[in-house]
Amino acid sequence: MPQVHSHQRAFRRWILKPENETLMSQSILFLAHVSEAGNTLPKVSYEVLGAALKLTKQFGARLTIGLIGADVAAAAETVAAAGAERILAVAGPDFASARYGSDAAAAEALCRAAGAELILAPATSRFMRVLAGVAHRLNGCVDTHVTSLESVNGELRVTRWHYRQRIEAVITRDPRPWIVLLESGCDAAWADTARAGVARTDTASTGAPAAAKVEEIPVTLPQAATRTVVSGVRAPKSDAQTIRPDANLLFVAGAGWTKKQADGKTHIDQAEALILDFLRASGASLGGSKSLVDQTGESQAVLGFMTHLNQVGQTGSTPRHPKGLSTCCHGEEPHVVGWRFINERRAVNLDPNCGWARGKADVLYVADAFDVLAKLNALLAQRNRTSPEAVLQT
Questions:
Q1: What pLDDT, on the 0 to 100 scale, is given for residue 326?
Q2: Which residues, other chains included, contact 359 with Cβ-Cβ below 8 Å and sequence gap of 6+?
Q3: Alpha-carbon dihedral of residues 225, 229, 234, 235, nearest 10 degrees?
């Protein structure tokens, strides 16, 4: 039975520990796939690489990098200076798009070629679909949605949340290989500062960026693995997408936007226009309180672009943006728990005694959100006219 210990914020922390303790493996594989653009890796991959390098240093382990994609040359150059002992790749047109059959075969081949007992990979949708199956093929184990890695007495422990972030589990495993998929925003992204022209602070060379020496691993796919063909991609326009995981700012709208205002009337159309203008001008990601998104099923006036996918809180998502701005939301604990990874918090509310005023926000503006957002949109429009490259600083 797992041992249950008390944890901060009234969460429970479970430590799942096997009977036989083992020391950390001396070989680590960082597994990644090329981004849709085809010339780099997804942002979360560099965060996982940073975590892999920390573990490599702590355990004195050897690091191997494994890449999957149609052409991995450009992506390999971006990680050439990471100090990996080997860079392996499975490349070719068959591995350009996400597909279970080809991705599973490629990942299995890289894991076997690397011979690593610990495999770290980003928790992208592409890898989340296939790596559990790869772990089964390797007679290993897998943990997904991991949020942190730590070394305790030479033993690796991984942390993840359960039951809508109410229970935190700390897990160790005996079976090897152990595949661990890390969520985004949980570690600092590794960057080749030499390539960016910045003086390096680690042990890598400070000279010209090193050329990547890539070992290609041949993989022959059976016909059954190529039956699925990606014929195209349908995606909303960038300005129509309201959920932006890589945005610097989270903008949260509360139910107050749909309530009667000072004139005794609701102004849903005005609220929609103000919020959408702000999202377009600032590039922020949109979140919503439970009370607002639940109005859809209660036949109440709602914001047309708001869905349950935007919900932030205990029964919603837990975004990892650097900054957050809450509007027309009281800041009750079930909602604020979804802000735990947001370091700088500001809120706009007419109630000076709302939850945000009780130590849950760095700054509370006691003001009308309609007026505040109208002023912000005017300032952003002026800034964008004078400097289109300007980034919102809050």
A1: 96
A2: none
A3: 30
Give all strands of the β-sheet with 344-348 in edge-to-edge order. 285-288, 249-253, 323-327, 344-348, 363-365
Residues 6+ apart with CB under 8 A from 126: 33, 98, 103
**CATH superfamily, domain at 249-386:** TPP-binding domain (3.40.50.1220)
Q: How far apart are the C-alpha atoms of 147 and 161, rounded to whole Å?
A: 8
* Phi, psi (deg, nearest 5) at residue 133: -65, -35
Spatial contact of 325 and 312, defined as CB atoms under 8 Å apart: no
* Residues comprising the chain, all counted: 394
Given the candidates 2.40.50.840, 3.40.50.620, 2.40.160.20, 3.30.70.20, the CATH classification of the domain at 3-226 is 3.40.50.620
Q: Rounded distance, CA 207 to CA 336, Å?
A: 46
Q: Give the chain's end-to-end CA distance (angstroms, integer).
A: 47
Residue 153 Ramachandran class (φ > 0 left, ψ -120 to 50 alpha, else beta): left
Q: Which two tokens stand for residue 156?
A: 């690796």
b/e burial code for range 206-222 (CB count within 10 A of at least 16 → b): eeeebebebeebebeee
* Rounded-to-integer distance, Cα 334 and Cα 143, Å: 27
Residue-wise pLDDT tens digits, 175-193: 999 999 999 878 888 986 5
Radius of gyration of the chain (CA): 23
Q: What is the pLDDT of residues 269-312, one digit of tens each?
A: 999 999 999 999 999 999 999 989 887 655 666 788 888 889 99
